[in-house]
Every structure is written in structure tokens, then in C-alpha cells.
């Protein structure tokens, strides 16, 4: 197996993959905010939630649904800021994963990644990291 990466490039490729995987897992998990409501533990992320209140029209009360799930639609996400965060974080995770998988392929295929491609990929990875951290949105 020939590689187009130096030793530092191989370390970068594996660390990039680990960071991209951690970002994607964090994006899909609903544990961004934890708290309690109606004496129940609740948590939610950008597009997933666990233990959320629902209005029971037959009894005219609010009950807690104790399960995890996605919002029914993109418009059901509670605010415009959370919708923007969902899109930007998803794009950032996608960029990070694309660069990490390309770098891992560079460990196995010779002449896949040149010095210029490595620098461009690092810039894309930096941009993806900024997007997945939510920089520039309400900060």
C-alpha cells in the first residue's frame, strides 16, 4: 500500500477522522441542552429532542412525552436561530467528514494528495470546524 502522505500527514488524517466522527456524533445526539420541565428530565439538540411537552386537547392539559425523536419538519424546529444552527452545523460536519475521508484515502493511494491539495483540504477543514462550532451565529 503506497501512501502520498508524510508521517505528519498520516497523523493528521487519523486525527481528522476522529474529530469529524466526534462532530457528527455530537450533531446527531439530542444532548446539547439538558434540564427539567414538569418534573421530568428533558434534553434537546438542533433537530432532536427527548422528553418534550405536548398539549393534550382532550384533557386540556400539557403532558410530557418521554421519548426521543426528531422534529416533524424543518419548520417545526423552535426558532430561526436553531434552524440556521442545524444547517450550518450539518454543513460543517459534512465538510469535516469529506476532508477526513479524503485524507484517509491518501494513506492508501499514492499521488492522491499533493502539498497544494493538503493545504486546501486543511483550509476547508478549518472552515468546516468553524461552521460546526457555530461561530458567527449569535456570537
Summarize the structure.
The chain has three helices and four strands, in the order αββββαα. The chain has 139 residues and is of the alpha+beta class.
How would you describe the overall organization of this protein?
With 139 residues, this protein is an alpha+beta fold. The chain has one domain (9-128). Helix content is 48%, strand content 21%. The chain has a 4-stranded antiparallel β-sheet with strand order 1-2-3-4, with no helix packed on it. A hairpin with a 3-residue loop joins β2 and β3. α1 packs antiparallel against α2 and α2 runs antiparallel to α3 (115-132). The N and C termini lie far apart (46 Å). Residues 135-139 have low confidence and may be disordered. Residues 1-21 form the signal peptide. InterPro entries: LHFPL. It is a multi-pass membrane protein. Its main location: membrane.
